[in-house]
Amino acid sequence: MARRWSKLQKQIYNLIDDKVPIQIHCIDMGSALDRGSLRLLGLYKVRLGKEVIWDFPKDFLTYNFIYPDGGNCFSYSVTDINILVREYIDTPKEMVLEKKFANDWFNLTDILKAADRRFGQEKLISHFSNCENKHIIDILNLRFGK
Description:
The protein has 146 residues and is of the alpha+beta class. The chain has one domain (5-140). It is 38% helix and 12% strand. It has seven helices and three strands. The protein has helices at 5-13, 29-32, 78-90, 93-96, 108-115, 121-127, 134-144, and strands spanning 22-27, 43-48, 51-56. The protein has a three-stranded antiparallel beta sheet with strand order 1-2-3. α1 (5-13) packs across α3 and α5 (108-115) packs parallel to α7. The longest helix is centred in the middle third of the chain and has 13 residues, at 78-90. The protein is globular and about 40 Å long.
């Protein structure tokens, strides 16, 4: 990983509403096991309370899935997800909700948006009005007491 995970993790936690018990964990296997040019996946988990609500690669691992960049699950790593998280953090607030994050093939930014303290109830309820993702709804309910 280009930057230490703990620094990136701290920055993303600074955006999370205190009412939302989210934990984000990342293990970059490429750093742990130096294999030259072989790109290893690593692990990325998002927990809401004790429940794992987003788990890379477990929730996304299929042998036939081709990502938009032409790669497959074995050519994607947590470093790519960290770059996405960095992009989310660096995107100006007024652009976040409407921005289509090009590399968000796993719908992580919707979880971040729902938990982001910079957005109030009206904006988020409007943004996620057609959302059927149980975890996004759970996050919004925690934030806004519904």
